[in-house]
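User: quick one, sequence for these tokens?
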């Protein structure tokens, strides 16, 4: 884009680095921002800066939050005996939209993938086991994505719980209403509700 003004080329380049955004989409977004009123562009820039400066990880569940502990962990109305394990913060949003689940969460921030060199030290499995060692959890719902990596991660966690936790914990997984290889964040609320309600012990 040598024939384009440097600020335009720079923004196109940065936007095209976002997941799911190709060069054409980045160009459309750039020219939309260029045509927008200055205050709208300023609000966008301020929202991005605020996101980076104020968002932290909850020290209990590792979900994204502005306060520690997060609003879900600190809510006395939530079921403190049940933890739903998910791969990403977006999965929490998807499950919360169903209105069905009333327990706590644990966000792994990824899934095990030996082929990509992602091991247990790269995600929050050990932190989950530490939470369970306190002995006040009766059920763990393994809500990893229905993919090879998600199933493998769930299997490792299940084995860790069975072999390393002194207090018995019921381990369940979502019912298979979800398409193989899909992500929880893209599932509709009805499908997720049925998957939660029909969860089975493993």
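Assistant:
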């Amino acid at each position: 884009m040598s024939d384009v003004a440097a600020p335009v080329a720079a923004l196109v380049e940065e936007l095209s680095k976002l997941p799911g955004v190709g060069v054409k989409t980045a160009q459309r977004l750039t020219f939309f921002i260029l045509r927008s009123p200055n205050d709208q562009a300023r609000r966008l820039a301020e929202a991005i800066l605020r996101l980076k400066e104020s968002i932290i990880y909850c020290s209990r569940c590792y979900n994204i939050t502005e306060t520690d502990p997060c609003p879900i962990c600190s809510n006395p109305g939530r079921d403190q005996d049940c933890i739903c394990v998910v791969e990403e913060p977006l999965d929490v949003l998807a499950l919360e939209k169903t209105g069905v689940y009333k327990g706590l969460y644990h966000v792994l921030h990824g899934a095990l993938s030996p082929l990509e060199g992602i091991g247990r030290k790269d995600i929050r499995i050990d932190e989950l086991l530490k939470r369970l060692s306190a002995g006040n959890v009766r059920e763990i719902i393994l809500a990893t994505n229905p993919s090879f990596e998600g199933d493998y991660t769930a299997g490792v966690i299940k084995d860790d719980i069975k072999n390393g936790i002194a207090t018995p914990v019921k381990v369940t997984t979502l019912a298979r209403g979800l398409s193989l290889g899909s992500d929880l964040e893209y599932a509709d609320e009805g499908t997720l509700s049925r998957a939660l309600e029909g969860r089975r012990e493993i």
